[in-house]
Amino acid sequence: MSRSGEISPDLVAVMTEWRRDLHQHPEMGFEEVRTSRVIAERLAEFGLEVHTGIGGTGVVGVLRRGASNRAVGLRADIDALPIHEKNGFAHRSLNDGVMHACGHDGHTAMLLGAARHLAESGRFDGTAVFIFQPAEEHGRGAAAMIDDGLFDRFGIDQVFGIHNMPGLAVGQLAVRTGPIMASEDNFEIIIYGAGGHASAPQQTIDPIVIAAELVLALQTIVARGFSPLDAVVVSATELTTDGVRNVIPSTAWIRGDVRAFTPESQSRVEALMRRISAGVCAAHGATCEVSYSNSFVPTINTAEATELAVEAARVAFGTDKVDPDCKPIGGAEDFARMLAVKDGCFAFLGNGGEAGQGRGLHGQYYDFNDDALPHGAAYWTSLVETALPER
Ligand SMILES: [Zn+2]
Ligand SMILES: [Zn+2]
User: Fold this and answer.
1) Residue 165 CA: which ligand is closest?
2) What is the pLDDT of residues 45-66, one digit of tens each?
3) What spacing in Å lies between the alpha carbon of 233 and ligand 2's midpoint?
4) Looking at the CA of 83, which ligand is closest?
5) Number of domains composing the chain
6) Which of 108, 197, 198, 252 could be a cystine partner for 191, CB 3.0 to 4.6 Å?
7) Do 250 and 201 belong to one domain?
8) pLDDT 10s digits, 238-254
9) Cα angle at 33 between 31 and 36, to 5 degrees?
10) What is the C-alpha separation between 15 and 113, in angstroms, rounded?
11) Do 130 and 55 belong to one domain?
């Protein structure tokens, strides 16, 4: 238990109400107008200094204690997804086609709960900055808040985030130093050949045959360009041409997605992709254009911040409930942009249950597990009291 004591049953009940209200009113990234208003009202009620409109619809609450200049940022994401909810319970989405299918409703409620608990009874020395970030799913909200001066305006030294994890037991936390979630890059290769009659291939440079060879050759980036111990995924997910049934196309487009865990791996994939694409096309007399762009950077935890997170979780949950060296996962997370410029740590909080049959993250039957709310609030509380100890 942290210095300020347990999260009260009354606060758990209230967090559950907040969570279900948010679940009923999901909003897409940068459109979280109602969500932001609700968050700002609550933070003001608890007596925090409130800043709205940071990075679009982002909200920041500030809580100061004592004399220390140290400040930690605690971040929750607040946006929903363009998914049609299939749940039939009373708190299902009222905004048809939009759903809190990633549990950001729970993340928001837990952080609000921690803000209230710390405002009432927190024992720490320094500044706790409660960051409610828009547009996580787009991968643009973190950058928007940083560009709006998030870290400088509030003097934040370290920043922390959590994501609920279906399949991990409630009351458990999993984390690791170093890369914990992947980067996501996207690519497009345009192959320029020469089209013609389907019966006269000798008069054409057929880009579809070249594309077929190239799709397979792209698999050698990982199979032969990386150590078997490096986790990298290259997936060609779309192949289109301008041909029709009896016409050899003149142009082919290959699009796809790349996952990696370090910036070095990302650069290596790009370099190999450019070389292989140019080589395969040249071998057949075609030319190509490769565009390679980044959507999410890898989420990389620093050792110092991860130690604090592990210690705080052990205080809140018990030593045997914390995995300090979990496996990284191949999904990507916008919080990584904050970790790219700030010392910090991202951890997984147990959401219980099974991840399958549409009940996992982004599934149409997903629902954040309210039993995890007190654990999330307790972790945040413990983290503030661990990172900003009283003198
Ligand atoms: Zn998500
Ligand atoms: Zn999420």
Assistant:
1) 2
2) 999 999 999 999 999 999 999 9
3) 21
4) 1
5) 2
6) 252
7) yes
8) 999 999 999 999 999 99
9) 115
10) 6
11) yes
